[in-house]
Amino acid sequence: MRQVNVALLGAGTVGGGVVNGLRRNGPLMASRLGVDLQVRRVVVRDVRKTRDFEVPERLISTDWKAAVTDPEVQVVVELVGGTTLAREMILGALRAGKRVVTANKALLSAHGEELFEAAVRHGAGLYYEASVAGGIPIIKVLREALVGNRIARMYGILNGTCNYILTRMKAERAEFGAVLADAQRLGYAEADPGLDVDGYDALHKAGILASLAHGFWVDVEDVAVEGIRNVTPLDMEFAGQMGYTIKLLAAIKTVEGGAAKGRSKGSGKTGAHVSISVCPTLVPNSHVMASVAGVFNAVYVRGDIVGDTLYYGRGAGRDATASAVLSDLADAALDLNCGGEERIPPFVPHERHGAVMPSGEMISGHYLRLNVTDRPGVLARIATQLARNKIGISSVIQPEGHEGESVPLILMLHDAPRKSVDRAMTAIRRLPVVKAEPALFRVENFE
Ligand code: NAP
Ligand code: HSE
């Protein structure tokens, strides 16, 4: 049986899971694939650290350059994270002709085009299943299983840390900071948890999915993002009373016509125009995405031939992510074993006029919570500002049991372009009857 040697760059949460996974199921994989995967090198920052996996000490070092150029190594797995050293490591490995596996969505988001181009140029192969939605094989789904479909819509709960925090805040009215600390302890959060809770990690993943689905590299700089720091237990409660759950939702939709920015700006040519948003969103409780709880992720994909499909699983954590890395290791080993290039290149841009819709043009319903002075005429003043911007109100709730100088007032707003909503909000914030910073969240009805 052919042996394929692996160099692991990084052996923390995910890397340790990969070593353990290979130890546990390596023989099973060998019998299924006809290839024996062996860890030959493990590169870490601190060789003296106690590890909760077993590899012979002689395999562990800090010398990544020796690992990526070792002629006995065929596959390099980057699990260090970050966008500087990891980029150097991957480019070094690709230049040395190694097949590279990575879980690093931040790096792909920032430098994906360069890395994919290098992989093709060196005939080396770049595999990245673990970069999106943890253990869910969504990259394989888009690259292979749904290759015969145009993707009309995708919705994703793509950040395990945020979903874990929102779920516990809702169920236990738990405090944000304490739940975040639990997510860090469980190995879900990024080294910089701001990437999770401010929405950037989900944005990086949404950008990768949108690029694969629409065939042009999506620059996430073009996408408005909002994290979960402003979601309060009060909003969860009011949303619940109206039949909704608040999720950090990525929505990727094909736009028929409409202005778009990005590469095709001003080109006058038609191409895939895509709207992308990543923000706290009210999801109807009747929709399956509302029941995705805890660290679980879900991706809902609508193809023009297949119709609606749903993918669900653990979105973060050691074993779920290691499972995705093992899948990439298997693909890399099979490609090597068949003596050829990857059957499907890592990412090939094929849509020359694709562009991302500006966030101000996106149309959706909104949930608005205001803190207002409790006296006659207040609602009329707010409604006037909304009407001036052609925004209709679908329902109003002033919950009982709130007393004091200011009380909550919740409005559900009809579909309107975000730029109109933002204009109305500027005027509403200035009203003397509005006593605190309003909460404004998108409502998604999946129509
Ligand atoms: P981690 O636990 O912090 O592990 C990072 C590893 O990289 C550690 O083994 C560390 O060595 C090593 N390292 C750091 N700097 C190094 C350097 N200068 N030279 C050599 N080695 C160095 O991170 P992780 O959670 O496993 O995440 C790894 C990657 O997977 C990231 O890109 C992350 O975004 C991605 N990811 C993580 C998850 C998850 O649930 N955790 C899920 C999907 C994707 P020491 O052990 O000696 O400190
Ligand atoms: N920090 C990420 C999350 C890890 O919580 O989803 C998985 O990509």
Mean pLDDT: 94
Radius of gyration: 24 Å
**Can you tell me the number of structural domains?**
3
Strand residue content:
15-25%
- What is the CATH class of the largest domain? Alpha Beta
Ends: how far apart?
A: 52 Å
Q: SSE order, as H and E?
A: EHEEHEHEHEHEHHHHHEEEEHEEHEEHE
Describe this entry's structure for a reader.
- Strand 14 and strand 15 (406-417) form a beta hairpin.
- By secondary structure, the protein is of the alpha/beta class.
- Helix 4 (105-121) packs parallel to helix 9 (200-214) and helix 12 (378-388) packs antiparallel against helix 13 (418-430).
- The strands form two sheets. Strands 7, 8, 9, 10, 11, 12, 13, 14, 15 and 16 form a ten-stranded mixed sheet that branches.
- It has three domains: 2-127, 3-Layer(aba) Sandwich (Rossmann fold); 140-314, Dihydrodipicolinate Reductase, domain 2, CATH 3.30.360.10; 362-443, Alpha-Beta Plaits (2-Layer Sandwich).
- Helices cover 35% and strands 25% of the residues.
- Bound molecules: NADP nicotinamide-adenine-dinucleotide phosphate and L-homoserine.
- The site of L-homoserine has 11 residues, from helix 6.
